[in-house]
Amino acid sequence: MKSQNNDDSSPRRARGRPRDWEDKTAQNTIKSLDRAMEVFEFLSEAQGKALTVISAEMGQSPATVYRVLVTLEGRGLVEFDPVEQVWHIGPQAFVIGARFLRRTSLVDCARPLLRKLMEETGETANLGIEKEGSVLFLSQVETYANIRAFFPPGTLSPMHASGIGKALLAEMDDARLTRTLQGKPFEAFTEFTITDLAALRDNLAEVRRAGFAIDGEEKNLGMRCIAAPVFDVNGEAVAGISVSGPTSRVGTNDIERLSGSVMEAAQALSLAIGGQVTRPRT
User: Fold this and answer.
1) Which residue intervals define the domain HTH iclR-type in the entry (predicted)?
2) 213 is in which domain, residue-wise?
């Protein structure tokens, strides 16, 4: 006689996950690990700092921070400069980050398209995504020209002053746009930075109509960026492609020509990842 417990129709818990998988309360977190990750994330944004400086700025005791750093150092995630007496992110952090990039085909598919875009336009080509309200640059193919834009992988940039940032913001529905922008200080990097919410919304409406965004010296004086969104299978903007260069080469008369190349590259990447070429614009 077969046991009722072997009934294949009974629901089964996914393998590799505990019963309380969805419970994210404090009882299911490891405080020491959480504290270690806070130190690691802080150091990733403020490299080259002494132990006393890190502990003071984080409000943690030097002994606690030191134990965390030594533990991370043992894993190669941070390293200590004995000459300058400061701590830096270690090489293993890059290895782990590279594994994250390999998890998706987005970067792999984008690489030849970025190179083609750079060769076609003569300017640096970039790939970025939205990450917690900022633009996270994933890949870049630099121009051969001496004066160039430089956004190494891992760089974060404010969305309101970024071509890719505005290209992605323009594709958000109103509810998500409000959540993304809510409480964000619109820092003025240059005299051209859009710092007013209403003005930014007007600019995003124009971006959506045109299909591409422009960072016209809004982050750095003398630099202009043209960006377009990349869409997934659901028609959602999941990334942005851009070209960036000095205004002496990327002038207002060049926008029409360059924007066409950027949009073509973004559409090609959309198709390469199985997404839609574009979505209806209103």
Assistant:
1) 30-91
2) 104-272
